Amino acid sequence: MSHLIPDAPFETMAQHQVMLMLIMAGAIYYLVKGADMLVDGSVGLAYRVGIPKVIVGATIISLGTTSPEAAVSVMAAWEGKAGLALGNAVGSIIADTGLIFGLGCCITVLPADRFVLKRQGWVKIATGVLLAGLCYLMFWLEGDVATISRWVGLLMLVLLGGYLAISVFWSRGHPLGDQVADGDDISELADISERSTVTMLGLIVMGLALVVLSSRFLIGSVTVLAQSWGVPQVVIAATLVAFGTSLPELVVGMTAIYRGHKEILVGNVIGADILNVLFVIGASAIAKPLPIIDQTANVPRIFLYLHLPTMLLMIGLFMCYILWATRQGRFKKWFGYPLLILYVVYVTVQYALEMGGSNVAAPS
Is residue 363 part of a domain? Predict the structure, then answer.
């Protein structure tokens, strides 16, 4: 989002910490408000149109929350920083699965929609494996100059169109008997029934805008505050910036759980991970071929040795969970702990490597 809203306005307020704290407080308020609007609009649209909430989460919400990442990645590619797109997409998949889905599992028993898990769930797994396979294949064929080419990006966008089309087809075949799920507030649904579809779409758009913009203002102000308090840049990069890219999905997911619409979290995680591959990487590769290895990095092959293996391991765990949940109708709470532990280990190792690289780069 720094490409869409520059860091400069935040940096000019580095000496005005009270103002930064006010911005931070306001961003948190509007972040929660936007998430509430997004969840209200999504539940209402699902109820009005007659499609399951989990499919709304896997399509409309995930398209909205990944669109800023796609825009940032495409802009970065045009500016000669194409290597950021791959790291952004894979890092988002790791955060979505490990942090958001893992935390959601630990907090509550998440429902498992068998119809969706047997379709969109396996598409999520297939797209992650496809991305990793392409990266390792191109590296094996071309070595350090390997790239994700434009034709591969075009193929991913074609697959994206196919995925969205078949999702509409699947939604029509979904059994609608569970449209009013256990725990749904009947009075809330009665209030929703009085609102139009256009109103629901308006809530979704406004909620997405508030969530995305508030996330940027929150991370921007917190980052400048951390810098003014002497926190090393490498620590900020490995924690705040990385966390900020997944903040919209995290807040929307936690709000959905709090409001009793757990299906939205599951759908958003599945849909966002599919779109991170087909949408974010596809659009970025069309703009400019994406290098698999960043030759300027101190640890140039970290993407192949850390990011992709972590993503594949999380996808493997998620696949095992799907196989269990499609039989039982729910995800067990303990499923979240291995994912959260793996995410913490991943962030810790990445932080250690960045610190090591920073120390190497520092003058003696």
Answer: no
Task: Give the C-alpha separation, 348 to 355, whole Å.
Answer: 10
Weakest mean pLDDT among 93-102, 133-142, 198-207, 302-311: 198-207
Residue 137 has pLDDT above 80, yes or no: yes
CA distance 154 to 287: 10
Write out the H or E segment, with its range, that includes residue 200: helix 197-228
Question: Is 359 part of a structural domain of the chain?
Answer: no
Instruction: Quick: pLDDT tens for 11-53.
Output: 677 677 788 788 878 877 887 787 778 777 777 777 776 677 7
Decide if pLDDT at 176 tops 90. Answer: no
Which residues, including other chains, have CB under 8 Å from residue 88's CB and lie 6 or more apart?
69, 72, 73, 76, 245, 280
Assign residue 331 the CATH number of its domain.
1.20.1420.30
Could you identify the residue written with the tokens 């009013």? Answer: 180
Contacts of 121 (CB under 8 A, 6+ apart): 270, 318, 322
Domain total for the chain? 1
CB 309 within 8 A of CB 118: no
In a domain, 360, yes or no: no
Range of the domain at 41: 8-172+184-353
* 329 phi/psi in degrees, rounded to 5: 85, 10
Please, what's the largest Cα pairwise distance for the chain?
69
Taking the CA atoms of residue 70, residue 317, residue 269 and residue 237 in that order, the dihedral angle to the nearest 10 degrees is -50
d(CA 49, CA 241): 37
